[in-house]
Amino acid sequence: MTDLQTQQRDGRPSGRPHVVIIGAGFGGLSAAKALRHAPVDVTLVDRRNYHLFQPLLYQVATAGLSPAQIASPIRRIVSGQKNIAVLMEKVVGVDKERREVVTSGRRIPYDYLVIGTGARHAYFGNDQWEQFAPGLKKIDEATEIRRRILLAFEKAEASQDESERQRLLTFVVVGGGPTGVEMAGAIAELAHRTIIADFRHINPAETKIILVEAGSRILTSFPEHLSASAARQLAKLGVTLKMETAVTSCDVQGIALKDGSRIETATIIWAAGVMASPAGKWLDAPSDRAGRVMVDAMLHPPGADNIFVVGDTAAVTDANGIVVPGVAPAAKQMGHYAARSILALLKDEKPRPFSYRNYGNLATIGRKSAVADFGRFTLSGFLAWLTWGFAHIWFLIGFRNRLIVFLDWIMAYVTFERGARLITGGEN
Ligand SMILES: Cc1cc2nc3c(=O)[nH]c(=O)nc-3n(C[C@H](O)[C@H](O)[C@H](O)COP(=O)(O)OP(=O)(O)OC[C@H]3O[C@@H](n4cnc5c(N)ncnc54)[C@H](O)[C@@H]3O)c2cc1C
Question: In this predicted model, what pLDDT tens digit does every residue of 42-93 receive, in sequence order?
Fold first, then answer.
């Protein structure tokens, strides 16, 4: 066992400054990698043993990819980095006075702390809806959604009751952000193109995919003309949009809407609302309505210059007054910035405030359409889809995953096939 491993196992690193990073998401990993050659010891703590590429979770939920294709073991990702040790533990608090990270089993001392614990979906105070309308943040949730979607088709095929069959063939996605749009498009393709030839009693025309959005347009983070283009592309795929319609309740039979109407459905997918991890509570720091820790442009919570909060857990306005969005590239940039700042602080230099660089905003709609906003120019349709595909494959961690996902997509594109159509888990 190396010195670093012994020290970190015992939670008392000595000699070099100790950087603890909580969360091996986009932000945490980026910080860890940027400290590769730094004269520090790093402990990377995550409750899971893998890094998850969340942007492709919807592909797992709709049977396009398998879980292992969008996840990589954290240990393997950082195995070549000698100054880093990985701990699989769930953090439950931070003791700022004693400079210790608290897990259920130990206390880990730190000199510098980077928190990148991400976010979850929020039900606006109606957590009881989750059982009827799962969200999409974890692999387990993606495979549960896949199970519900595929099971609905199986039950519809077997059903003798016309109204029950219609209920089973109705899929509701709540939330018109990128995840909701991606889910609705992918379910439409699955239903109308991929699996329908495999059933004998289901009429494709009976399958309804309804996207419910409380606001007046979908994809509000995109310019209006791209929202309109996305709406048209969804309509072409057979998705019905219900705009300016808030959800008032979800139950086992369906969903009730604010306009007084009700949709009978067996499958609701929640893609509305985000709630950050409880880092704000750990730090006793002010948080915004989504629970994100309000940090300054150096990514510090008030009064803690040795703590950095990065990624979806942080609410930050950067040096240029830009409100940094909750997307993967922003998390990566923040993680990298935190590492550079730690290096500067070690040299007694003053770090410059964080500036976010927006390289573009992309959302896909089915297997050959997307919208892309690059600020100076925008794209929609097939070219945007190609850009989206290459961007996502490029950012997939690990060459093996990249290659496998690429080959799977080529196959799926040519054949309409979705190879991961497995119903697993549950009691069926
Ligand atoms: C379905 C979906 C689709 C998306 N699509 C896109 C997209 O197309 N493009 C894009 O740019 N962004 C997309 N995003 C957003 C993007 O994934 C996030 O902005 C990004 O993952 C944020 O990175 P992060 O490092 O802050 O957190 P995460 O990547 O969420 O990582 C957080 C890490 O912290 C760990 N953790 C959490 N709590 C604890 C704890 N208590 N103890 C120990 N470890 C803990 C988690 O296990 C996880 O590994 C999507 C998100 C979702 C959910």
Answer: 999 999 999 999 999 999 999 888 998 899 999 999 999 999 999 999 999 9
Closest CA to 388 of 426, 416, 361, 415: 361
The architecture of the domain spanning 127-272 is 3-Layer(bba) Sandwich (3.50)
Say which CATH class 3-47+89-121+274-346 falls into: alpha beta
User: From start to end of 230-326, where are the E strands?
Assistant: 239-242, 247-250, 254-257, 262-264, 267-270, 274-276, 293-294, 307-309, 314-315
| Sign (positive or negative) of CA dihedral 120, 125, 131, 134 | negative
User: Is residue 47 lining ligand 1, measured as CB closer than 6 Å?
Assistant: yes
Cα–Cα distance measured from residue 428 to residue 425, given in angstroms and rounded to the nearest whole number: 8
- Arithmetic mean of pLDDT, 292-298: 97
Confidence of residue 1 (pLDDT cuts 50, 70, 90): very low
Q: Indicate whether residue 57 lines ligand 1 (CB < 6 A).
A: yes
**Ligand 1 atom showing the smallest separation from residue 326 Cα:** 19
pTM summary value = 0.92
182 belongs to the catalytic site? yes
C-beta of 279 in contact with ligand 1 (< 6 A): no
Q: Give the gyration radius of the chain's Cα atoms.
A: 23
d(CA 81, CA 86): 11
Q: Using CA atoms, how far apart are residues 323 and 312, in angstroms rounded to an integer? A: 12
